[in-house]
Amino acid sequence: MYIRKDDLVVVITGDDKGSEPRKVLRAIPEKNKIVVEGVNRVYKHLKPSAKNQQGGRLSKEMPIDASNVMLYSPTLKRGVRVGFRFTASGQKERYCKLSGESLGFVGPPKPSRATSKA
Questions:
Q1: CATH assignment of 1-46+55-80?
Q2: pLDDT digit string, tens, across residues 54-87
Q3: Which residues are CB-neighbours of 94 under 8 A, at least 6 positions away?
Q4: Is 56 helix (H, G, I), strand (E, B) or coil?
Q5: Rounded to an integer, what distance in angstroms lies between the CA atom of residue 27 and that of residue 107?
Q6: How far apart are CA 77 and CA 79, in angstroms?
Q7: pLDDT band at 29 (very low <50, low <70, confident <90, very high)
Q8: Residue ranges per domain, the chain?
Q9: Where would you tag: which of 15, 24, 71, 96 has the fewest CB atoms within 10 A of its CB?
């Protein structure tokens, strides 16, 4: 999955579709889902208890499928498609398919992927 926690994404389908970027709060790669700030909000009704004497409704974000968002590129100011590539040092990085700019590294360098100039 190419989306990680603290990334900025743009929601492209569903009720919360919009152009403003939002922050990813949590990624769930096993289910290919993410939790995005302010998206897919539901109400959880709480009964009065010793801990919460008032009771009431608690609003919280629920996971959405990762295919419903695009990673946000700050230079292009829009959602972009993402690819993976290895640098010359063997470091895996995400990159914007439109402009080719780097969107951050993904883990430690792999010497087996490094290109030698010998």
A1: 2.30.30.30
A2: 889 999 999 999 999 999 998 999 999 999 999 9
A3: 2, 71, 82, 83, 84, 102, 103, 104, 105, 106
A4: strand
A5: 16
A6: 7
A7: very high
A8: 1-46+55-80, 81-118
A9: 15
